[in-house]
Write a structure and sequence with these properties.
CATH superfamily: Bira Bifunctional Protein, Domain 2
CATH topology: BirA Bifunctional Protein, domain 2
Strand content: 25-35%
CATH class: Alpha Beta
Distance between the termini: 6 Å
Number of domains: 1
Largest sheet: 8 strands, mixed
Order of helices and strands: EHEEEEEHHEEEEEHH
Helix content: 25-40%
Number of strands: 11
């Protein structure tokens, strides 16, 4: 199975969302016509933007959305509200799970495993938190539990879009304006905070992520 990897660099959210949607719809059409689908892996960083999933609650914005200080979109992924910005690796896999004979739960678990292995290479122990997707730290201590990677996806006919947001050196003050992922009393963190390194090269993170993605999904 072929995987086409595209590094889109720093992007505005809406054009990137439109591009995802185009590739997603092309794969759905291929499915309907019983022709071959194409697997894509889009990597980007976004200009500051907040996104609210289709089942999200607008009340998870603290105050008025006009005061967020960044763009805001209601979108068609799962999950609640989150922030994307420079220093955050955002990855959109547009892949055919049916080709791999896996379901959505396994897909999300694989994404979590990629991040768990990636941050382990920096000496950070990532974990899954019961009842919440993404990768977390210190899940056994409610006072210290914090998220380093958020996951929100959409799938139709086993084709995926949207994906994950991994905080590498993100400006986390933006998260103070929301209840991240609609989960109160839990913090967010970044790889630079946890490692106390401010100069983690994004290119190295992307390279490792792609390698792990290929290995875990066997693409």
């Amino acid at each position: 199975m072929e995987l086409l990897v595209e590094d889109l660099g720093l992007t505005f959210y809406k054009p990137c969302w439109d591009y995802q949607e185009k590739l997603f719809q092309q794969n759905l059409e291929a499915k309907k016509n019983n022709t071959a689908t194409q697997n894509y892996l889009l990597l980007t960083e976004h200009h500051p933007v907040f996104t609210l999933g289709k089942s999200g609650d607008i009340k998870n914005i603290k105050g008025d959305e006009k005061q967020l200080g960044a763009a805001f979109y209601k979108i068609n992924r799962g999950g609640d509200i989150t922030f994307h910005g420079p220093g955050q690796l955002v990855v959109y896999p547009i892949i055919d799970l049916e080709q791999m004979n896996i379901g959505l739960a396994k897909y999300i678990s694989n994404i979590e495993e990629i991040i768990i292995q990636l941050i382990a290479s920096y000496g950070i122990v990532g974990q899954r938190s019961a009842g919440a997707s993404g990768v977390w730290l210190n899940v056994d201590d409610p006072a210290l539990e914090r998220k380093i990677c958020a996951i929100g996806v959409r799938a139709s006919r086993y084709i995926t879009m949207h994906g994950l947001a991994f905080n590498v050196s993100t400006d986390l003050t933006y998260f103070d304006k929301i209840i991240p992922c609609g989960i109160p009393n839990k913090g967010v963190t970044s790889l630079s905070i946890e490692t106390k390194k401010q100069d983690i090269p994004m290119d190295a993170i992307k390279t490792t992520f792609i390698e792990l993605f290929r290995n875990i999904f066997q693409l």
